[in-house]
């Protein structure tokens, strides 16, 4: 008895020293990401919140101004407009998803050339956004651009895409869809390939129409992918900047293409209104966080229907 | 009966293939057009009707372009940033993923959730204080603000590797421990080889993301000789459009695309598989 | 059209936009006609073993010229100068970062519009004393240039000197002589400006369907000439009240817009987008186009003949345009303020450097005597160099935002101007509608400036 108790306590002791060692190793392994996170994310994040309550031009120390910057933001037509533009760009998300799913369905057949097509559609995804923006800026040129030349073939006189308040946003959306299509398609394709063929065959035997099979089997099966793409699409879309800055360096005709990040960037680094820019950046953070949280909440309530 | 289904299926395939081909042409046309423009003369780009294949390809555009701007140093800088960040960052991230997934540490899941939640903070919200921080230590206009944060790892990568590691049974590690292997040995000679495909895929994706980054570089880099390739070509675009030198701009952009295309072609399968994994595991 | 304008600023215009504002600040540092050594005759400072940093932006031609000035300075004082060069549009960020990081260069460029903020926050040094001590005769530099960097605590243009001009940038008006001769139209006079009506008539005559146009002006950079010559301005002299809602202002804007809307003597928006008017001018398709000294090196290579004239005039009968400048300032934290002031002086007024600069066709000399003498008489384009000089000395004005705390009130005017140029809004409607928004921003700026 005493011997076994002894043995137990040594094991415990050995175990606890072992555990302690393991803890130390684990801490060592995660230290860098945690430190990096504190220094490069949490620290700046807290400082942003502080700065958003100040007047700060980077020449002198920040001066506390309370809620002024936030009040200013809600009365600033350009802030509201750039926010509106940013949401407008998100129209591209459902368009892209529908196209991507259609493509994925088309490719999800046992047919030759599938790999080839997959790669072709994926090429824009790996291309650098800067280069692609430069390319499309040229492609949207009124007379000599690719887009209008193609339209010309079918007898349409295309507009001056990037110079017209009515077309500049659709033009940017079209480009974004082109750029992102391959990515969404690939994810859908992977999801479709995990749909058991037997399930579809059984449904077909039961007399389910193609539409019914799609709506009751395929669509729910790919729902997690849709969710993932919508969430990442909104997070990414809310930060659209590169194409705006390259293709419409002045924020577009009458500010019609300026995105919120572009406006923050202008205010901060062109007008040196760091405090005001920080306030807008914090608002952007809150918006992104809220939308994402809402999506997760909605997904938790409705998302699992039919997926399992 | 079986035959008609098969034929129907085959005709379907043909129709689908034709549609996909048309779609594929739409997808690839702008890029081909970019290459075509890069081989034209300055006036050739204004020819109507447009020429898809320039009558005399101006290969010298690709010679001229190197003298027209700091393209070479741009490539060098991009390479330094992307390689340093992804090589060191991948090691950091893999070790963290191993710890989060397989090592005992009270509260580790909480810490991990905390890190994950940080991904919801958009970069623009952080960029102003980060800029000031780096300005204070005199790092602006050096590559350091682009490199250093990446060395601390990439939470996204930690997340995926951690998911991936869940499929490695704990008993394997326990057995190794009983055999007296140290944690570094377990990590180095067991875990890494086991998840090598996942690491490689994440590495490539990350490399391309850093290579293609634009916002942080334009924030931090002012001197032409410090700029990364993406900033260099964006400046090309700004400077040469006024001179209507579109061929030069397009040549620079083509050059900027070539490295990622090469990587894509070489690692196509890994990239595509790992992206697919992203969706299903994410 | 505004996009188009801005595009020009962004692109080729790096030079215009940059050089122009840069020029305004010439504070009159140097002895125009003396060698650098003579300018410093008062109290020569030895710079043995000292290294000064100098943040520079600009093209290769400029760099070459300034390297000359630096060499002369180094030889004279024994100091070393380390040049930090940047792209024009990245300059401000880089400077800002250096200031934040306590690495403010000893000598750097200062934009006119930044004088107030930089002086008030103690970033730039009041160099009046150093200039005096060094025995520098600033009267040899354009008065406008020196005055642009004077600030008395509330107002720019008077008081202590916070910088010397790197250059002054007269934004003049050019015409395509060859086109006039071909069309058989009498050449415009360099002494008597056109009236608006005459100008529009000539522009119409020059316009030939889809191939050639009378003009193609960018509202952002050219409306000043119209407004000012019509007795209008963006704000009152104290820069407290925005005055774009006057009938004179509206009339000027409307006349400007009508060149396109009514007369169609400019490329349409679509045509301008395809190839902007700057490129069309260079291809000889445009009759009248603005010319700054920074354009001369490029325009000299054009295959048509061109020259300068005064801008057409509105109701006042007096031609007007803007005169930009960029300043050279000294950091308040420099340990070698006299030496730094001396370097600023060399950069502003070293004779050899100034000669190189005008010969390179990137600016007119900062030295009044050199400008009126050897520059005005020199070969090379434009023939009517006196127009540049008259602007610099006589009728050029600072851009409206150059003397306010922030330029946002002025930018506000341009952001929504497109509908006026498109004819969807009248000038009067627009001016009335934009005034309160501009006023609010100007009030904000004045409040921030503490005035």
Automatic annotation (TrEMBL), chain A:
**Subcellular localization(s) per the UniProt record:** Cell membrane
Is the keyword Cell membrane assigned to this protein?
A: yes
Q: Could you tell me which residue ranges the ABC transmembrane type-1 domain spans?
A: 82-295
Single GO biological process annotation from the record: transmembrane transport
* Superkingdom as given in the UniProt entry: Bacteria
Give me the Gene Ontology terms describing cellular component: plasma membrane
Q: Does the keyword Cytoplasm apply?
A: no
Q: Which residues form a coiled coil?
A: none
One Pfam family cited in the UniProt record for this chain: BPD_transp_1
Task: Kindly list the residue ranges recorded as spanning the membrane.
Answer: 24-50, 87-107, 119-139, 171-191, 276-298
Tell me the membrane topology, using the record's own terms: Multi-pass membrane protein
Q: InterPro entries, per this entry?
A: ABC_transporter_permease, MetI-like, MetI-like_sf
Write the record's keywords in alphabetical order, separated by commas. Cell membrane, Membrane, Transmembrane, Transmembrane helix, Transport
Q: Which family does it belong to?
A: Belongs to the binding-protein-dependent transport system permease family.
Can you say what this protein is called? Sugar ABC transporter permease
Q: Which organism is it from?
A: Tessaracoccus flavescens
Name the lineage: Bacteria, Bacillati, Actinomycetota, Actinomycetes, Propionibacteriales
From TrEMBL, chain B:
Q: Which UniProt keywords apply?
A: Cell membrane, Membrane, Transmembrane, Transmembrane helix, Transport
ABC transmembrane type-1 domain ranges (all copies): 75-267
- Topology in the lipid bilayer: Multi-pass membrane protein
- Coarse class of the primary localization is membrane
Which domain of life does the protein's organism represent? Bacteria
**Pfam families listed in its UniProt record:** BPD_transp_1
Q: Indicate where this protein resides in the cell.
A: Cell membrane
Q: State the InterPro entries in the record.
A: MetI-like, MetI-like_sf
Q: Which family does it belong to?
A: Belongs to the binding-protein-dependent transport system permease family.
PANTHER family xrefs:
ABC TRANSPORTER PERMEASE PROTEIN MG189-RELATED, ABC TRANSPORTER PERMEASE PROTEIN MG189-RELATED-RELATED
Q: What is this protein called?
A: Carbohydrate ABC transporter permease
UniProtKB/TrEMBL annotation, chain C:
Q: Which parts of the chain span the membrane according to its record?
A: none
Asked whether the UniProt record includes Signal among its keywords, one would answer yes
Residues in the signal sequence: 1-24
Matching entries from InterPro entries are given as:
Bact_solute-bd_prot1 (IPR050490), SBP (IPR006059), TAT_signal (IPR006311)
Which keywords label this protein?
Answer: Cell membrane, Lipoprotein, Membrane, Palmitate, Signal
Which Pfam families does the annotation name? SBP_bac_1
In terms of PANTHER family, this protein maps to: ARABINOSE-BINDING PROTEIN-RELATED (PTHR43649), POLYGALACTURONAN_RHAMNOGALACTURONAN-BINDING PROTEIN YTCQ (PTHR43649:SF33)
Please give the name of this protein. Sugar ABC transporter substrate-binding protein
């Amino acid at each position: 008895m005493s011997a076994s108790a002894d043995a137990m306590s040594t094991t415990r002791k050995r175990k606890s020293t072992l555990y302690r060692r393991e803890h130390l190793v684990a801490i060592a392994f995660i230290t860098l990401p945690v430190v990096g996170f504190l220094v490069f994310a949490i620290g700046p994040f807290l400082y942003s919140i502080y700065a958003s309550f100040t007047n700060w031009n980077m020449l002198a120390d920040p001066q506390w101004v309370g809620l002024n910057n936030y009040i200013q933001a809600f009365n600033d037509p350009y802030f509201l407009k750039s926010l509106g533009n940013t949401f407008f760009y998100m129209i591209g998300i459902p368009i892209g998803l529908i196209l991507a799913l259609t493509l994925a369905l088309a490719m999800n057949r046992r047919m030759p050339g599938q790999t080839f097509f997959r790669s072709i559609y994926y090429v824009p995804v790996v291309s650098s956004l800067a280069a692609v923006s430069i390319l499309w800026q040229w492609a949207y040129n009124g007379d000599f651009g690719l887009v209008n030349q193609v339209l010309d073939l079918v007898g349409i006189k295309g507009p001056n895409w990037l110079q017209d308040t009515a077309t500049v946003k659709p033009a940017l959306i079209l480009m974004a869809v082109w750029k992102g299509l391959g990515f969404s398609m690939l994810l859908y394709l992977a999801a479709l390939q995990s749909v058991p063929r037997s399930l579809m065959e059984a449904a077909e035997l039961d007399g389910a129409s193609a539409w019914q099979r799609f709506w009751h089997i395929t669509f729910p099966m790919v729902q997690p992918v849709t969710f993932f793409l919508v969430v990442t699409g909104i997070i990414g879309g809310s930060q659209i900047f590169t194409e705006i800055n390259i293709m419409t360096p002045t924020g577009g005709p009458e500010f019609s293409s300026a995105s919120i990040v572009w406006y923050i960037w202008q205010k901060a680094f062109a007008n040196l209104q760091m405090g005001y820019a920080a306030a807008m950046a914090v608002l952007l953070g809150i918006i992104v966080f809220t939308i994402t949280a809402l999506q997760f909440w909605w997904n938790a309530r409705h998302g699992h229907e039919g997926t399992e | 009966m079986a035959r008609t289904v098969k034929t129907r299926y085959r005709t379907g395939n043909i129709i689908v293939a034709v549609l996909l081909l048309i779609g594929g042409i739409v997808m690839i046309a702008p890029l081909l057009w970019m290459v075509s423009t890069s081989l034209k003369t300055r006036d050739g780009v204004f020819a109507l009707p447009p020429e898809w294949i320039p009558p005399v390809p101006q290969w010298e555009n690709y010679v001229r372009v190197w003298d027209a701007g700091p393209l070479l140093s741009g490539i060098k800088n991009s390479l330094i940033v992307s390689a340093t960040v992804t090589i060191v960052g991948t090691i950091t991230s893999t070790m963290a993923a191993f710890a989060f997934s397989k090592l005992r540490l009270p509260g580790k899941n909480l810490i991990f959730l905390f890190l994950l939640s940080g991904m919801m903070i958009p970069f623009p919200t952080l960029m102003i204080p980060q800029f000031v921080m780096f300005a204070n230590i005199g790092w602006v206009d050096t590559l350091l603000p682009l490199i250093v944060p990446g060395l601390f790892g990439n939470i996204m990568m930690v997340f995926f590797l951690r998911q991936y590691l869940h499929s490695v049974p704990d008993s394997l590690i326990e057995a190794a421990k009983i055999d007296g292997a140290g944690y570094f040995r377990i990590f180095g000679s067991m875990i890494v080889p086991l998840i090598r495909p996942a690491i490689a895929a994440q590495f490539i994706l990350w490399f391309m993301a850093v290579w293609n980054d634009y916002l942080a570089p334009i924030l931090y880099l002012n001197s032409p000789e410090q700029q990364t390739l993406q900033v260099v070509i964006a400046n090309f675009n700004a400077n040469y459009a006024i001179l209507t030198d579109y061929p030069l701009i397009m040549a620079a952009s083509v050059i900027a695309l070539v490295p990622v295309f090469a990587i894509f072609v070489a690692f196509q399968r890994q990239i595509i598989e790992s992206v697919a994994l992203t969706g299903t595991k994410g | 059209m505004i996009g188009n304008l801005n595009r020009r600023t962004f692109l080729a215009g790096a030079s215009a936009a940059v050089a122009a504002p840069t020029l305004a600040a010439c504070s009159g540092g140097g002895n125009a006609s003396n060698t650098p050594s003579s300018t410093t005759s008062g109290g020569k400072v030895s710079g043995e073993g000292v290294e000064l940093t100098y943040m520079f932006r600009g093209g290769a031609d400029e760099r070459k010229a300034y390297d000359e000035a630096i060499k002369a300075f180094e030889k004279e004082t024994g100091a070393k100068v380390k040049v930090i060069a940047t792209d024009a549009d990245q300059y401000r960020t880089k400077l800002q970062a250096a200031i934040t990081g306590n690495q403010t260069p000893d000598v750097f460029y200062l934009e006119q519009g930044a004088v107030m903020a930089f002086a008030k926050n103690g970033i730039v040094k009041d160099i009046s004393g150093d200039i005096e001590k060094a025995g520098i005769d600033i009267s040899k530099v354009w008065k406008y240039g020196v005055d642009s960097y004077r600030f008395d605590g509330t107002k720019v243009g008077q008081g202590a000197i916070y910088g010397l001009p790197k250059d002054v940038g007269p934004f003049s008006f050019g015409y395509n002589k060859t086109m006039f001769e071909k069309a058989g139209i009498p050449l415009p006079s360099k002494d008597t400006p056109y009236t608006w009506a005459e100008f529009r008539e000539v522009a119409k005559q020059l316009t030939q369907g889809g191939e050639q146009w009378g003009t193609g002006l960018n509202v952002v950079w050219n409306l000043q000439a119209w407004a000012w010559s019509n007795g209008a301005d963006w704000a009152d002299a104290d820069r407290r009240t925005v005055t774009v809602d006057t009938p004179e202002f509206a009339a000027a804007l409307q006349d400007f817009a009508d060149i396109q809307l009514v007369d169609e003597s400019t490329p349409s928006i679509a045509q301008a987008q395809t190839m902007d008017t700057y490129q069309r001018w260079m291809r000889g398709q445009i009759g009248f186009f603005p010319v700054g000294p920074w354009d001369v090196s490029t325009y000299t290579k054009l295959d048509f003949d061109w020259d300068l004239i005064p801008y057409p005039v509105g109701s006042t009968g007096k031609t007007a345009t803007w005169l930009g400048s960029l300043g050279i300032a000294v950091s308040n934290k420099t340990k070698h303020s006299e030496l730094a002031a001396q370097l600023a002086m060399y950069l502003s007024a070293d004779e050899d450097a100034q000669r190189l600069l005008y010969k390179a066709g990137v600016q007119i000399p900062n030295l009044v005597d050199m400008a009126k003498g050897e520059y005005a008489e020199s070969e090379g384009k434009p023939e009517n160099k006196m127009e540049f000089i008259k602007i610099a000395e006589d009728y050029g004005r600072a851009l409206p935002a150059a003397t306010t705390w922030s330029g946002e009130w002025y930018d506000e005017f341009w952001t929504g101007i497109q509908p006026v140029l498109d004819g969807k809004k009248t000038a009067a409607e627009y001016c009335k509608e934009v005034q309160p928004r501009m006023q609010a921003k100007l009030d904000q700026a004045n409040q921030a400036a503490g005035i």
